[in-house]
Amino acid sequence: MPQEHSSPLPPDIEIARRATMLPIDQVAAKLGMESADLEHYGPVKAKVSLDLYNRLADAPTGKLILVTAVTPTPAGEGKTTTSIGLADALNRIGKRTTVCLREPSMGPCFGMKGGAAGGGYAQVLPMEDINLHFTGDIHAIGLAHNLLAAMLDNHLHHTNALRIDPRRIEWGRVVDMNDRSLRNVNVGLGGVNNSIPHESTFEITVASEVMAAFCLSESLAELRDRLGRMIVGYTRDRTPVTAADLKAHGAMTVLLKHALKPNLVQTIENNPAFIHGGPFANIAHGCNSILATKLAMRLSEYTVTEAGFGADLGAEKFINIKCRKAGIHPDAVVIVATVRALKHHGGVPLETLRRPNVEALDKGVENLKKHIENIHRFGLPVIVAINHFAADTDEEITFIQDKCAYLSVKIVRANHWAEGGRGAEDLARAVVDVAENTKADFAFLYPNSCTLWQKVGIICREIYGATDVLADKRLREKFQHLQDAGYGELPICMAKTQYSLSTDPGLKGRPKKFDVPLRDVRVAAGAGFVIVLTGDIMTMPGLPKIPAAEMIDINEEGNVVGLF
Asked: pLDDT, tens digit, for every residue of 164-177?
């Protein structure tokens, strides 16, 4: 959400439009790349050749900094803005740094959240392109997903030689838009020429398993293999049918050939930024691609990346899913918090967040402390970034520092939104100090050898703070079936509300003495994880009563207005 300041800044889109961008070749040169390594999308965007990625396979790697946050609130935390501001600040103090972010989905952009290219003077450019069609990656992922759906229905229509049970079809369709009316649909209606009628669904494209597999693949060959393993449905005797069985995975890979190359753009201070991939952080792992992250690490002294939502979701999955697959781990973790978000966790309504309220802050800071403890559970050092708002007081910042003192973390105020990299130099110095002088004692939360049920219990009890995990007999049998079917070695991807450490979005702060009721479990065989659903998690968001799309328009000069 737009951030207020004592000296009001122009809208994000105006700041972005006034910025001077370098030709993308000059940005690439800062990392030692040449024009031949790039596939240009105009003067300020490019894709990077996978040949370069392979040539650098044995190159030394720089430090990796993960940016996460407290449990999200409507007051806003500014995780992406902080990631960009930190990367600019690290470059300002002499550390060759690249920021790695997810590609924004157009659904939230036109919905309630707005764009995801940062804000104020901590943005990635070209902001309009990045928030809209960009280089077409998300469209390509949607086409690959829907090609598989079309080939599935075509197979049902002609012979159904694979004996797929129309009642047990798992593969629906996707579109990169918030459209609640498509969540549950019937397809194949209208007579014998329109295939076999059956129930289906639409998800937003970034919730597609294709997106998750795309972001976890390091080559076209690996992506093709992952696509082939995707389960589209089951036969009457519950035998899984895959994309490879339908001979669809080769054509799907062709559609993703160019999309798999990482996208290179720049920050508002002309520093390199890789923006590639964008899986949901509740139904999937919520991180940018392994390709982009590892390429940045091979080219940079520091790589700054983020994981979606709070540390209980994005950071946990970044470590247990992405790091496990990629063979990497952060050298330090930045947890972003705001005074107002912590007061909201302490029970203060949105309209009174600007007023000092130490009592509420005392309750709300428990949420921050839990996230710090969670990151320490992985053996990783933590820095807390207090994203500055105009109404913050020195007393409130000091109070937060005092309350967290026993955890031995640096808590640094940052003002990158209003001042760009200059406003985050103290944060950058703190990050360098911790990353270079603190030895991480890294450990995953659980070993692969734990059963699926054990892994869920460890996440719920140790990360969320739950008392117990609840599942009925049918669901426990489903866990056992997946275990027996050979999926027990896979990591767990929890689908849980982002608004609480619990599964109840109304429980703010640090809830205690709560259980986690499980709703369902399913395997994402291509992505390589098991999804456990809780609560009412939706994979197709709806638009709010007043969507952001109502404010977005084109003016007489042909410029986009209202985008944030």
From this structure: 999 999 999 999 99
Q: Which residues of 312-349 are buried (b: 16+ CB within 10 A; e: fewer)?
A: bbbbbbbbbbbbbbbebbbbbbbbbbbbbbbbbbbebe
Cite the active site residues.
79, 81, 102, 113, 281, 309, 389, 417
How far apart CA 258 and CA 113 sit, in angstroms, is 29
Domain range for 475: 452-534
State how far the Cα of 177 lies from the Cα of 542, in Å rounded to an integer. 9
First-to-last C-alpha distance (Å) of the chain: 8
In one-letter notation, the amino acid at residue 475 is L
Taking Cα atoms as reference points, which of 456, 516, 517, 521 lies closest to residue 491?
A: 456
Residues 6+ apart with CB under 8 A from 492: 320, 452, 455, 456, 459, 529, 530, 532
Tell the residue number behind the tokens 């994402």, with chain if given: 524
Q: Are residues 22 and 120 in the same domain?
A: yes
DSSP letter string over 175-234? ESS--GGGSEEEES-SSGGG---EEEEEEEGGGSHHHHHHHH-SSHHHHHHHHHH-EEEE
Supply the pLDDT for residue 8: 76
| 381 in the same domain as 278 | yes
pTM of the complete model: 0.94
Query: pLDDT-derived band of residue 5, with 50, 70 and 90 as boundaries?
Result: very low
Q: What is the pLDDT of residues 285-341, one digit of tens each?
A: 999 999 999 999 999 999 999 998 999 999 999 999 999 999 999 999 999 999 999
Q: Which of 321, 330, 238 is nearest to 287 (CA)?
A: 321
Residue 491 preceded by cis peptide, ω within 30: no
- Closest to 273 (Cα-Cα) out of 243, 245, 295: 295
The answer to the question of residue 293 being in a domain is: yes
> From CA 248, how far away is CA 229, in angstroms rounded?
11
Strand partners, 386: 337, 413
